[in-house]
Please model this.
Amino acid sequence: MTEAPPIHIDALTLAYGTHRVLDGLTLSVPAGSITALLGGNGAGKSTTLAALLGFAKAQSGTIAVCGVDPGRQPDLARKRIAYLPENVALYEHLTAVENADYLLALSGERQSKAAITDALAAAGLQDRAWDQRLGGFSKGMRQKVAIAVALLRQVPVLLLDEPTSGLDPRATADFNALVSAVRDRGTAVLMVTHDLLSAADVADSIAFLEGGRVAEAVPASGPDRFDIRALHARFQVGADRLAA
Ligand SMILES: Nc1ncnc2c1ncn2[C@@H]1O[C@H](COP(=O)(O)OP(=O)(O)OP(=O)(O)O)[C@@H](O)[C@H]1O
Model:
């Protein structure tokens, strides 16, 4: 029996009231790969993530996380997903270790302090920050704590919503390296972004959302690698540095 793909969406239609946002969306993300999802403002990128998390309900089509329909079994689907919203929500008055411990306890997946500090180290958080409260942490440091929790949960799916917006180039490169390492452990990563250059650096394929569906999906490496200037010219998204 073949295993269900981590993320599988087929001909999905989703509307908020009379406003149809997704209109025949088809997208699959295999294990051990990163897909970047680009598109203009309001194209439906975050809505796609919300549908995978079971927070937005589709009207028709298929959506599955490791074979689980998040519309019908949201709790089961969320157990397979680590989700990083644009601004990661953590507890300011708890330390990095305490945050990881508490979040793991909430999902019923508690682990030892040694396992937590190993994961924080793997996520690139310096050891002097492990026992500091999060109040003074930068966005990049918070993401490292959240990624460490994702590593510890060993979930097959990682969803990222504009993870590098507001990060400087060094922190963006660090984050992309970390996401690549997560991918190399076999995780399927779907990353919503406006940054075409960053997507080109880290993703295996890039999907452009337009009119509620994937207007174009292209490999980000190999001989058929896309022409970044042609894509920028066509979709006018991200890569402001190219337009300069
Ligand atoms: N909960 C909601 N109720 C009603 N309309 C919504 C809701 N969430 C999103 N929308 C609308 O659905 C459309 C798609 O929004 P979505 O946030 O998915 O787009 P996006 O591609 O992520 O955009 P951006 O790049 O601006 O973040 C927008 O027109 C938005 O106003």
